[in-house]
C-alpha cells in the first residue's frame, strides 16, 4: 500500500501523463494564488478571516512539502535546497497566528514564497516555446520582483513601529522602489545602522537587477539561435559562426542605417 501510494505521488509530480500535467499545473496555480494572497494581505490588517485562510494555505503547503520529501531520491539534499528551506519557513509563517503585531516579523518570511516562481518558470520553459525563447527576460523580471518584495518585507519588519515614516506595507514598498531606482526623494529614510545597511543592499543589488532586466530587454549580450550543426543555442549578438563547431549561423538583425 505504501509503495503504491509513493508510486502515485511520483507519477503525479514527475510523470508525463495528462493527469500528471494537470496536477502539476494545479500546484502551480496554487503557488500563483498563494503569491497573490501574500501581496494583497501585505497591504491589509490581519484579522481572524486572514488567519483562517493562512491556516488553509499552511496545511496545503505542508501536504505538498511532505509529498515532495517522500519521493525525493536524496532527502537530505532536497531538504537543504533554497526553495525547500523557504517552504519550511513559509509553512511556519502561514500556520503561526499573525493578528498580533508581536509576530509581525513573520510577514517578512512569507515573502520567501516568491522563490516558488523559479519553479514556475522552469515548468513554463519546458512546456511553452514562448517562455523558452524569452526566458532571459522572464528570469530577469522574476529576479527583480522577488528582490523587491523580499526587501519590502524586510523593511516593513524592521522599521514598522520604530519609524513613523513606515506606517504600512505601501510605505515600505514605496521606499524600496525609490531606493532601488536611486530616485531618492528623501521623504522616507530608514533609521539606525540596520536601516542604513538595508538601504545600501537595496540600492546596490536593486540597481544591478534593474539594469540586468533593461539589458536583456534592449541589448542582450547573448541571443538564442540554435545551431543546426551542433545544437548550441546561445551565441553572441554579432556572431557569424558558431563558437562551438564553427558552422555558419544566421542571426536576424535590424542592421545599421
Automatic annotation (TrEMBL):
Entry-linked SUPFAM superfamilies: Voltage-gated potassium channels (SSF81324)
TM region positions: 21-40, 52-71, 78-99, 137-157, 169-188, 194-214
Keyword Amino-acid biosynthesis tagged: no
Highest taxon of the lineage: Bacteria
One Gene Ontology biological process: action potential
One GO CC term on file: voltage-gated potassium channel complex
Keyword list, A-Z: Ion channel, Ion transport, Membrane, Potassium, Potassium channel, Potassium transport, Transmembrane, Transmembrane helix, Transport, Voltage-gated channel
Membrane topology of the entry: Multi-pass membrane protein
One MF term in the entry's GO annotations: voltage-gated potassium channel activity
Positions of the Ion transport domain: 23-210
Subcellular location field: Membrane
Record keyword DNA-binding present: no
Listed InterPro entries: Ion_trans_dom, VG_K_chnl, Volt_channel_dom_sf
Protein name stated in the entry: Voltage-gated potassium channel
Amino acid at each position: 500500500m505504501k509503495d503504491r501510494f509513493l508510486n502515485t505521488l511520483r507519477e503525479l509530480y514527475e510523470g508525463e501523463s495528462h493527469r500528471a500535467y494537470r496536477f502539476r499545473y494545479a500546484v502551480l496555480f496554487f503557488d500563483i494564488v498563494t503569491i497573490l494572497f501574500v501581496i494583497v494581505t501585505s497591504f491589509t490588517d490581519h484579522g481572524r478571516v486572514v488567519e483562517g485562510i493562512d491556516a488553509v494555505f499552511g496545511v496545503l503547503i505542508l501536504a505538498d512539502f511532505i509529498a515532495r520529501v517522500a519521493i525525493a531520491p536524496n532527502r537530505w539534499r532536497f531538504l537543504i535546497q533554497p526553495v525547500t528551506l523557504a517552504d519550511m519557513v513559509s509553512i511556519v509563517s502561514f500556520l503561526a497566528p499573525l493578528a498580533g503585531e508581536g509576530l509581525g516579523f513573520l510577514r517578512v518570511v512569507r515573502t520567501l514564497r516568491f522563490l516558488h516562481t523559479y519553479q514556475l518558470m522552469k515548468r513554463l520553459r519546458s512546456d511553452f516555446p514562448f517562455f523558452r525563447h524569452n526566458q532571459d527576460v522572464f528570469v530577469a523580471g522574476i529576479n527583480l520582483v522577488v528582490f523587491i518584495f523580499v526587501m519590502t518585507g524586510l523593511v516593513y519588519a524592521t522599521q514598522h513601529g520604530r519609524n513613523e515614516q513606515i506606517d504600512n506595507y505601501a510605505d515600505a514598498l514605496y521606499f524600496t522602489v525609490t531606493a532601488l531606482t536611486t530616485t531618492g526623494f528623501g521623504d522616507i529614510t530608514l533609521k539606525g545602522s540596520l536601516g542604513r545597511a538595508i538601504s545600501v543592499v537595496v540600492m546596490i543589488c536593486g540597481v544591478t537587477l534593474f539594469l540586468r532586466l533593461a539589458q536583456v530587454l534592449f541589448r542582450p549580450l547573448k541571443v538564442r539561435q540554435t545551431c543546426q550543426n551542433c545544437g548550441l543555442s546561445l551565441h553572441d549578438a554579432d556572431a557569424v559562426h558558431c563558437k562551438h563547431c564553427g558552422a555558419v549561423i544566421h542571426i536576424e538583425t535590424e542592421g545599421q542605417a
